[in-house]
Every structure is written in C-alpha cells, then in structure tokens.
Design brief:
Layout lengths: L3 H4 L7 E5 L3 H13 L4 E6 L9 E3 L3 H10 L3 H7 L3 E3 L1 E5 L12 E5 L5 E2 L2 E2 H10 L6 H5 L2 H6 L16 E5 H14 L3 E4 L2 E6 L5 E6 L4 E3 L2 E4 L6 H6 L4 E3 L8 E8 L2 H4 L5 E6 L2 E8 L2 E8 L6 H12 L9 E4 L3 E3 L3 E2 L2 E3 L5 E2 L7 H14 L8 H27 L7 H8 L5 H11 L18 H6 L4 H10 L9 H5 L1 H24 L3 H8 L12 H4 L2
Parallel strand pairs: 1-2, 1-14, 2-10, 5-17, 14-23
Antiparallel strand pairs: 3-9, 4-9, 5-6, 7-8, 11-12, 12-13, 15-21, 16-19, 16-20, 17-18, 18-19, 21-24, 22-23
The structure holds tryptophan.
The site of tryptophan has 13 residues, from strand 5 and strand 6.
C-alpha cells in the first residue's frame, strides 16, 4: 500500500512569499517563478530601504546555472545591466607590502587545469620550479595572464568566447532588471513595510502583516531581508553562528571612482589590493570602477579606513560619499527552518574576496529547487538543503581564510594577527597538509575540456586544485616536496612540456587577434567615447 500522503496532490505548495527586494529577493522571485510557474509568488519590498549591493564581481557559472535556467541570453542581460568582463582576480601586495614591492601581484583564474597522467599541470610546474624555472604559476599554467596584462577582451568582435570569464556589474541594475523579468512572469510586487510576523500554532510562519494593513499568507516564506534576518532570525530565533575567529574583517567603506577608460583601458579582471588592515576591491565598469576597503575595526577606525581609501585613489575624503557597511562573518545554524528559507545576506555573509556573494544566492536557489518541499515539510529535505549550504559556506570561508593565514606578511598588527591568531578548521588543515606533501588538493573532475558542464560536480568541487595553486603559489607558499610518483613519470613530464608550450603559443595567437576590453565594451554597449557613463553614479554612494 502506498501511503496516501505520498500521492496526495493537495499538499502541493500553492504560494510563496519573499521578503526583501534586493538582489537576493529578485533573483529568488525570478528563479522560483521559472522553476514553478504554477505557484503564486509575492515579493514584499519596503520602499526606500537602502540596498547593500555595490559593484559586484561574479563567477562564470552565473550564466549556466542562473541566467540559462531563466532562458536569458548573456548579451541581453549584459546590456540591460551595463556589465563588463571579469577574467579572474588580480591580487596585489598580498605577499609583500607596497613599501617592499609596489608591483607584487598574482592572478586567480577560472577554468580547471589540464591534467597529464592523472596529475594536474600545477604539479609539473612545481617540478620545473625545483629545477630552476622561475616562471610564476599562473603564467606557466594558463593562457590568460599576458592577455589580462594587455587588458584584452575575452570575446572576439563577433562575440566568440576565448577565455573563461565572469562579469562585473552594479547589483542594483541586476535587481531592477530581474524585477522587470519576474513581474512580467506574474510575480506580484508589493511595496509596503513589514510590521508583524503571524505564526501558526506549531511555530511555522502563517503570514506577514504590513503597515498598510495587508496580510500576506503563504505556504513557504523566503527571507531575503539582508543582515536584519527578519524572518529566520528575529521571528524564528535561529541562531547565527559567528565566525569572526576565522576572519578578522568586519566592515567596509565603498564608493564608485571615476576612471578615464580611453586613456587607461578597462581592466578585464577584479583587483584585490592588500592594505594595512584589510584589502580594497576594484571592480572595473565602463566610465568608473566600484571600489571599497574591507577592513578590520580592531586594527583601523572607519575614518582611518576612509582616509586610506582616499589616499589610494586620490579622492577627497570630505567630498566623497561613502556606502558604510558593518558586517558579521558567519551563517545561520540552519538556513532553512520550518517553512522559511533564508537566502542571501540573511543566510550567511563572507567578505567578497573571492566573489562568492551572488554565487551563494543562486547556489541556494538551485538547492531549494532541488529539495523543494510540499506542505508536509519533510524534515529530510530541509536537512539535505542545510547540509549543502553548510558545506558551500564553510569551504568558502576556509578558502578565503587561506589568503590571510598563508600570507607571509608580518608588517602590520593586522597581518601578524592573520598569520598567528586565527582559528583554522580541521578541513583546511587537512587540505594544506595534502598541498605541502605534493598531492593535488581537490582532485579535478571535469566533464569537458577544462571546465564543468554539470553544476552538481562543480558544486561538490568548487575550490579546485588550480584555485589552491593560484593563491598558495602566488603567496610564495610552495609544497615541501614533489609528489614522489611524478619523478618516475618521465614520459608524462615530456607530454607536460608540450602542453606548457601549447599554452604559450595559444596565448600569443589570442594576443594578436583579440580586441581591447575597452573597445569591445564601448561597441557592445553602444557608447561613444565623449559621453561619460554613469547616470547611476549619483545613486551608488548611498
Ligand atoms: N570554481 C570557482 C570558479 O572557477 C572558483 C572561484 C570562485 C573563483 N571565485 C573565484 C576562481 C574567483 C577565480 C576567481 O568559478
């Protein structure tokens, strides 16, 4: 006999209420409406609330996992959102302070390293290094570094892709665009303020009450209320696990910075510039770049951070308007509690060092659609969802922490604390131990030539061996020894030498054919050099 609850159609979720009209709220609304068109979806947005989104950097699977799922071609949303290309992150002064070497830098690139005889190219690079070759890791193992140095576009003029890349954009524009998409698909948009959360006898959320007297009832509630965690935290009381013993930064000051693109070109990458008490991001958009100083309030005051930021970019601290953000690193013990799923900043926060903010949103939406409940709310679905979010977050926190705890910098109290005083998870210790012993850190699993086509595989193995090498080798932290078996693989060493040579040849061919990133973006966005970009500029510094 089949249990009648199993076949019952009456338990289906009929309506979903989303609280919050920021990036997470509109990504959730559009994604869930696409995944479940028969469900009634309502989004409640408090009018006039400031949104956290600043200049954002993303990762490549934003297109395949999110926009392709919505059925929106890259060129369409890119134009609507004034997006630019990001082919990786350039880390500056993470190894040496600017006083010692103002030009010290390394790249973190996308794509998975090719393997030879079951070992990734990183390992052959280590062997060559031992033999006296001093070429930096990323320049030996990827085609991109010289192309990024030359500020070239990852797309040819006829929009052919030649590199793995992601995007930079102003998250406000993406939220506004997805609002148009979602409401066009039938999502109801209510601008009103939450006043009270009505609960069921069993503790679940029954409805949201608003200032104008509305009662929004639903089967499932999505908390996209940002740092305030109004549903999952305030109403349901789920504890937030503070992880400030892993990462010291707890604030940011941000502002757009005007930029003369015609004179300097547009860098096709994010920069992360290490400073005395944190680091500064640089997200190039047409006509300006988004920037912010992520700092630790234990080591510099907000005013001190603003002064340092202005000194870096030659701005006047008295006339520049800043977006001032304080944050708490960590996550909810459970992201999904009863009939409430938190997504975005209400679920977890990690400093934006590796561009995980928007990724965390659509990864959670993907997991929610995969584990989507009915009104019986089988706890196993929520448990599996929560486990996935936990691994996603904690692994990423470890990876971000690795930049700090493996940096050799000792020149300020902040950097000394990073090196000596941080709590390090067993999982990160284990990975660093494997790295030091010459083993690949996360064994690369790829479907197709150098990248994932399957999000399940990518999600499981998000921080690849190549990512670990980009950062650790970049910081000057090398394996203690070459993996013994590699010394016996003489034939493979020869094959690898051919692969290294191919990378150089392909890179040179691309350098000769690709347009500059500036030329490509100007044409793509139909801009004329004289017309300054940035009608949104005024609104951004709020
Ligand atoms: N697997 C992710 C990717 O390649 C890893 C990643 C996240 C990453 N953020 C990044 C790689 C920033 C390079 C730069 O997309």
């Amino acid at each position: 006999m089949i249990d009648s609850t199993v076949r019952s159609d009456t338990a289906r979720i009929e309506s979903v209420v989303i609280l919050g009209g920021g990036t997470a709220g509109w990504m959730a609304a559009s994604y869930l409406k696409k995944a479940f068109p028969d469900i009634r979806i309502t989004l409640l947005e408090a009018p006039g609330l400031p949104k956290i989104g600043v200049g954002e950097a993303t990762i490549p699977n934003l297109q395949s996992v999110f926009f392709d799922f919505l059925g929106i071609p890259e060129q369409e949303w890119m134009r609507e959102c004034n997006a630019s290309f990001k082919c990786g992150i350039k880390f500056k002064n993470w190894r040496q302070p600017p006083a010692v070497n103002p030009h010290e830098s390394y790249y973190h690139l996308f794509g998975i390293l090719k393997a030879c005889d079951g070992l990734p190219l990183s390992h052959y690079w280590s062997l060559n290094r031992e033999r006296g070759d001093d070429e930096p890791f990323a320049y030996a193992c990827y085609r991109e570094p010289p192309l990024l140095d030359a500020k070239l576009s990852p797309r040819t003029r006829d929009f052919r892709r030649t590199m793995y890349y992601a995007w930079h954009f102003d998250a406000h524009l993406v939220a506004a665009y997805l609002c148009r998409v979602a409401t066009g698909w039938g999502v109801e948009h209510i601008q009103d303020r939450l006043t009270r959360v009505e609960r069921e006898a069993d503790g679940a959320i029954a409805a949201l009450h608003t200032e104008q007297g509305r009662r929004l009832d639903g089967d499932l509630f999505i908390d996209c209320s940002g740092f305030r965690r109004l549903l999952v935290g305030e109403a349901l009381g789920e504890p937030f696990l503070d992880m400030s013993d892993y990462l010291l930064c707890d604030g940011a000051v941000a502002s757009p910075v005007p930029h003369d693109d015609a004179a300097n070109g547009v860098e096709p990458f994010t920069s992360s510039i290490a400073r005395d008490a944190g680091w500064t991001w640089k997200v190039p958009l047409l006509g300006r770049f988004g920037s912010g100083y992520v700092y630790s309030s234990h080591f510099v005051s907000e005013d001190g951070a603003i002064r340092d930021f202005c000194r870096l970019w030659g701005l006047d601290p008295d006339t520049t308007r800043f977006n001032k953000i304080r944050f708490r690193v960590g996550r909810n013990r459970r992201s999904w509690v009863r009939n409430c799923v938190s997504i975005g900043l209400s679920s977890c926060f990690l400093e934006p060092l590796e561009s995980t903010g928007i990724y965390f949103i659509y990864a959670a939406l993907y997991q929610l659609a995969k584990h989507f409940p009915d009104r019986t709310f089988d706890p196993v679905l929520a448990d599996r969802f929560n486990e996935a979010i936990e691994v996603m977050y904690d692994d990423s926190r470890d990876f971000v922490q690795m930049h700090y705890c493996c940096s050799p910098r000792e020149d300020t109290p902040f950097w000394r604390a990073n090196r000596h005083d941080l709590r390090i998870s067993d999982s990160l210790r284990h990975k660093l131990e494997s790295y030091k012993a010459g083993l690949p850190v996360n064994m690369p699993i790829t479907d197709v030539d150098g990248y994932y086509t399957n999000f399940e595989a990518e999600f499981q193995n998000f921080w690849t061996n190549g990512s670990f090498y980009c950062i650790l080798a970049g910081l000057g932290s090398h394996p203690d020894r070459i993996l013994p078996r590699l010394r016996h693989a003489v034939g493979s060493q020869q094959t690898a030498a051919g692969m290294f040579a191919n990378i150089k040849r392909e890179s040179a061919e691309l350098a000769a054919t690709l347009p500059t990133n500036y030329d490509f973006l100007m044409e793509f966005h139909s801009r004329r050099p004289a017309q300054p970009a940035g009608s949104e500029l005024a609104g951004m510094a709020r």
